[in-house]
Amino acid sequence: MELKDKLFQLGGELKDKAEKLAKDAVDGSKKVAEKVKIKNAISQAESKLNAAYLEIGKKYEELYADSTDEAFAELLAQVREAKASLEVSRADLAAVDSAVVCSGCGKYVQEGQRFCPNCGTKQPEPEAPVEEKPETSPADFVREATNSVADAVIEVADAAEAALLPKDEPKADAPAEDAPAEDAPADDDAE
Ligand SMILES: [Zn+2]
Questions:
Q1: Helix locations, the chain, DSSP H
Q2: 98 and 80 in contact (C-beta within 8 Å)?
Q3: For residue 108, which of 71, 95, 99, 113 is within the disulfide window of CB 3.0 to 4.6 Å?
Q4: pLDDT tens per residue across span 13-27
């Protein structure tokens, strides 16, 4: 075979190889995108399943709270316990939310109390703290901090997803396969 023909054949092979690599790259990107969609579908189905299980549990507890069925006794006891502590925590939360910090001793004083039960400092009139409360309330502070952390997490997740989707898999594969095949035959034919 003449050099010209050999080069022509080699060019064809390289073209095929490049086309295959490009196709693999596109297939890889599609696979990643497809997986993201499938994973979304999976987590949606899981959420529905969990919501249904939750409803079943609630319904059972509603209908058979006093059941002596051994299979459910332990779980029903846990529900009663959790409900009781939930009630206590909600009352605590409401108390903290409506409390103001005493300017005299720094302890919480329930709204509406005219004097601090701890140090006796006279508390401001009801009108004044209503406007100031949102800025200083610890509950609001925690809520705002939580929201900004959540926003940051969502931002990072979006960026990561955007970065992962188009390029990751194909780019990693392409150069490794390409390099050796291209160099070797070109040298042989030139001599
Ligand atoms: Zn006080």
A1: 3-64, 70-98, 127-136, 138-190
A2: no
A3: 99
A4: 999 999 899 888 888
What letter represents residue 116's amino acid?
Answer: C
CA atoms within 13 A on the CB side of 31: 10
Mean pLDDT for the stretch of residues 81-90: 95
Q: 123 CA to middle of ligand 1, Å?
A: 9
Structural contact between residues 21 and 177, judged by C-beta atoms closer than 8 angstroms = yes
- Tallying the residues shown for the chain, one arrives at 191
What's the pTM? 0.40
What distance in angstroms lies between residue 88's CA and the mean position of ligand 1's atoms?
Answer: 25
What distance in Å separates the CA atoms of residue 57 and residue 158, rounded to the nearest whole number?
A: 35
Q: How far is the CA of 112 from the centre of ligand 1 (A)?
A: 14
Tracing tokens 């316990």 back to the chain, one arrives at 81
Q: Phi, psi (5° rounding) for residue 119?
A: -120, -5
